[in-house]
Amino acid sequence: MRIKTVFSRFLVAIVMSFMGQTAFAANNASTQSRTLIIYFSQPEGMKPDAVDGFSGASVLQKNTPETGSTQYVAQLLQKQTQGDLYRIETTTPYPRQHEALLRAAEKEQQTKARPSLNTPLPDLSHYDTIYVGYPIWWYTMPMVIYGLFEQNDFANKTIIPFTTHGGSRLADSLREIARRQPKAKLITRALSLSRDDISHPDVPAQVEQWVKNVQPQR
Ligand SMILES: Cc1cc2nc3c(=O)[nH]c(=O)nc-3n(C[C@H](O)[C@H](O)[C@H](O)COP(=O)(O)O)c2cc1C
């Protein structure tokens, strides 16, 4: 009788410990984000205190002069995917005045500059899906985005680009990314939104629908 009781207690303990482990694994998997959103955005006339950090940024409901167009799309993506958000900031800040910014970007392109980052990129090994957003500058990606794809390894990761622009849409960016990251899975159904449409009330739904079409299912 006593042996039976000890044995059944032993069985209960094993079952409970197994259930505990399963619950931990499920909980761990659900809290572990595998999606990263990297973006570069240079709103003109931006106030310094409008700059958000890596993750945890408040999600703005609409575009304001302090929020860049690409930044706004990145925030919508973060809200929908629950991914981590990383904003690219360069060690040398860009001018906020339009003409000066145009000239600075032009010079970077002419000199094939690769601006350095203010804060290190998150460890890409923690992610398998990486959205990368940027404005089109002078008919291509900003030079800092060239640096991103040249200096980091995206092999076996899904890269999902998105751009905002004044008419050039994706420009040559998909080809330039593919050239630099041949081992990545590049989603070519990239999103490109005109800066003129960015404040339209349909944009959040449009972004949501696009994510449903491109986000890999796990
Ligand atoms: C330096 C510079 C160069 C630009 N060059 C182009 C271009 O070649 N083609 C285009 O469609 N838009 C161009 N634009 C417009 C931006 O792509 C557009 O305003 C974008 O939405 C800005 O995004 P942001 O607010 O996130 O920085 C340029 C803007 C700047 C500041």
TrEMBL record:
Keywords, comma-separated and alphabetical: Flavoprotein, FMN, Signal
List the Gene3D superfamilies: 3.40.50.360
Q: Does the keyword Disulfide bond apply?
A: no
Domain Flavodoxin-like intervals: 67-191
Q: Which residues form the signal peptide?
A: 1-25
Q: Tell whether Ribosomal protein is among the UniProt keywords.
A: no
Give the Pfam families listed for this entry: Flavodoxin_4
User: Where does the record place a coiled coil?
Assistant: none
Q: What is the recorded name of this protein?
A: Flavodoxin
